[in-house]
Amino acid sequence: MNDSMIIGQYVPGQSLVHRMDPRMKMTIIFFFVIVVFFANSFGSYGLLTLFAFVSVAITRIPLSFILKGLKPVWFLILFTFLLHVFFTRQGDVLFEIFSFPVYEEAIEQGVKISLRFFLLILLTSLLTLTTTPISITDAIESMFHPLKKVKFPVHELALMMSISLRFIPTLMQETEKISKAQASRGVDFRSGPIKERVKAIVPLLVPLFVSAFKRAEDLAMAMEARGYQGGEGRTKLRELTLTKEDIAALVLFVVVMVGVFILRT
Amino acid sequence: MQISFKNVSYIYQPKTPFEYKALQDLSFTIPSGSFVAVIGHTGSGKSTLLQHLNGLLAPTHGEVEIGDYKIQADEKNKQLKSLREQVGVVFQYPEHQLFEETVYKDIAFGPTNFGVEKDEIDDRVERTIDSVGLSSDMLERSPFDLSGGQMRRVAIAGVLAMEPSVLVLDEPTAGLDPRGQREMMDMFYQLHRDQQLTTVLVTHSMEDALAYADYVLVMDQGQLYMEGEPLEVFHQKEALNDVGLDVPEIIEFITKFEQKFDTSMQYTNQPLSQFAEQLKNKLKGGHHDE
Ligand SMILES: Nc1ncnc2c1ncn2[C@@H]1O[C@H](COP(=O)(O)OP(=O)(O)O)[C@@H](O)[C@H]1O
Ligand SMILES: [Mg+2]
Fold first, then answer.
1. Which of A51, A143, A236, B180 is the most exposed, having the fewest neighbouring CB atoms within 10 Å of its CB?
2. Could you tell me if B158 and B233 lie in one domain?
3. Where is each ABC transporter domain found (chain B) (predicted)?
């Protein structure tokens, strides 16, 4: 497994954020994403940043772990920043890099846009870090339920999604196991000419496909044996319920959002 | 080749909330040519230990020595390939690693990767398919058309064809029927004998550990809990029970027998028929009140 990649990874915990109704988390994040684009002043950005970091603190997941896990995204953020720094030409010239003028506005724009980007990613990754994939699917199914009226296959899609999510870790483990077995038989996945490395994928992919098909077959058989026949009349083991905590979180969020609009200039 | 672990620790996903200490300060030596069984409860770190033997994992702390090879933390090992040629690893459910169109190609895969000559490969394929107890008629068939047991044998042949001097086996008989299990263990033992291999076997079968090993390592929670010769280890029933392990039935029987009849039996892993004879003499010659 790739240690430095945390997007999509769930970190078990008991915090308030972990316990929240996934629908509430998704709603809050959805509106947060929108409101972030309205922020334009020091105060409004500050408030949003504060909200994001307090949320992180509540989860009790070490910030350093999250930041390290966002490594692949840092590059994008930096790139966005530089793009703005070099291509915005307003305000006074602050200094020059290799005779390339850097404007005051440019720095400000750069910081704002990359901060916006950072906040978006931080908060959305908080969703997957504190919510099991199954809860996310449940939430989606529940929120899209009204679409059933127009014959949209909500249940089937949710089921497909949860099965896929369920098998991602299994497939990753399997990949690791098989690549170790083939490495023991002298396959070198890490070095050598590109052509050789591409060839090295075959002994990995064939067993993976074989086992994935086998698993799919077994699962289909097991579902049939237990009388699965679609979503009609099916009840849930874990009902989603909104609690007082969820309402409190929502109220707090609304207050912050109102604050952002007041602090806008 | 002699294998030695010096204060080896291994941590999975260090410095994350998922950090897990799978091995803690392991030290032991396996002399060249010996047959060592590694036993321990599920999750005790046996498979993690095995993966250090051919450099799939490098210790987080400490050092592993296999023959002349040294594997240390934070050190790029250049001769990994030749180490892997010398140390053949049969993983759990090795049949999952099959991928070629024919049995022949799959067995030849390892030796080909290590640059063995074509003629030599032909020889080895013939020899290994025979030693795993399959007929050479199968060589042109697809491995995916075989039965589970046959697939397992083909996969094992693929490892043996590398002609390793250390053979590492991770629960090689899991999921086979009792007879298949015995045949397979006998096969490994014979190879061990005939080719003077150093064999490391992870097993859940205390019977196998007693029957085949000269030395037993007992793992518990990533630590070396106990080590010694099989008879020595298996006489410590309580200590083994504490870490979720049983003792072989025969040892249990002898212990009970000795208590009941207040006597002592010489058991040194002799064949059962011989031991039965010994028992008979003891019961006949002993002082009982008939
Ligand atoms: N790739 C991995 N990432 C994280 N933890 C792992 C990984 N592989 C094994 N572990 C953990 O290390 C411990 C020892 O595993 P393992 O060596 O497979 O035990 P055994 O073979 O004795 O059953 C287990 O608790 C397992 O969950
Ligand atoms: Mg294991």
1. A236
2. yes
3. 3-246
